[in-house]
Amino acid sequence: MNSTINIIKATGEREPYSREKIIYSIKRAGIPDVLRDQVVRHIEEKLFPGISTSEIYRHISEFIGRSAHPYYEASYNLKRAIMELGPSGFPFEQLVAAILSSKGYRDVQTNVTLQGKCVSHEIDVLAVKNEGHYLIECKFHNQPGLRTDVKVALYVDARFQDVLSAWKAEGDRHKLHQAWIFTNTKCSKDVISYANCRGMKVTAWGYPDKDNLQELIESGKYYPITCLVSLPNFFKQKLLAQNIVLVSDLKANKNLIKSLSVSDPEKAKVEQEINYLLNS
Questions:
Q1: Which end of the chain is more exposed for a tag (fewer CB within 10 A), N or C?
Q2: Which of 148, 149, 157, 151 is closest to 197 using CA atoms?
Q3: How far apart, in whole angstroms, are the C-alpha atoms of residue 111 and residue 103?
Q4: Under 8 Å CB-to-CB from 27, ≥6 apart: which residues?
Q5: How far apart are CA 241 and CA 235, in angstroms?
């Protein structure tokens, strides 16, 4: 393989093709070694100078979908599946709330209006743990190549300080108050620097090294229903409209699967894919 082939990232930047990055992404999705080697050979046959990362991932997904292990496509396409929760950011907020609840946070609420010292603020997610009060901004992007930039951190911090001022004026006795940014994309370096300086938490795609968004979803099996390649997009949107966001929600309510206007073999495929995601 000629390592000098440059590919185009979603941001428009160019970088050399990396077999190691492809292998890492495949292994992370739990794809077995025997299929991994086949995928690498397949994609390297398709490479050409200037190929986009989105085209590379499309080739990988299509190859996995046609293989003897088609359900691995669901876990491999996690990042794309999260973006497909939009255009509204509300399903992403529900995903974040579910993750926090599983991590021991209590009184987790979404879409809360809090009065600040100056104005009122709509808070995406509010959570409590031990003596800590957390105000969480869920920054959702539904297009590849976008990053959460420092303007978001500045905006979140300003709102947090206004609410904190009101709480202190009311004699609030919580020992800890903290602003928290949750995003489904990567963050700019300035976001990380500003957050560290201001004592804010950040959970993003690939950040921090431990308990980043991808890791939280995979370790807790909090896969969104948009991961399911066997489920038609029309039904995904219908379920999201009913606040059914997680594959585990679909698993818990078998009547939802039975109500799908698809054939019995297609329903069986959906159930098989659900079992793979939640039990693998």
A1: N
A2: 157
A3: 20
A4: 36
A5: 10
Residue 26's pLDDT is what?
84
Q: What is the mean pLDDT of the chain?
A: 90
Q: 90-220 is classed in which CATH architecture?
A: 3-Layer(aba) Sandwich (3.40)
Strand partners, 138: 182
Considering the entire predicted model, what is its pTM? 0.85
| Model pLDDT, residue 109 | 96
Domain ranges of the chain: 6-76, 90-220, 230-279
Query: For residues 193 and 153, what is the distance between their CA atoms, to the nearest angstrom?
Result: 10
**Residue 260 structure tokens:** 């799908």
Instruction: Give the C-alpha separation, 43 to 1, whole Å.
Output: 11
Cα separation of 254 and 248, whole Å?
11
Spatial separation of the C-alpha atoms in residues 165 and 146, rounded to whole Å: 33
What's the confidence (pLDDT) of residue 58? 87
Output 54 or 30, whichever has higher pLDDT: 54
Q: Which two tokens stand for residue 25?
A: 């992404």
pLDDT digits (tens, 9 = 90+) for 252-266: 987 888 877 778 888
Question: What is the distance between the alpha carbons of residues 225 and 141, in angstroms, rounded to a whole number?
Answer: 17
Cis peptide bond prior to 208, omega within 30° of 0: yes
Tokens 């590919």 locate to 7
Structure-block tokens of residue 246: 């997680």
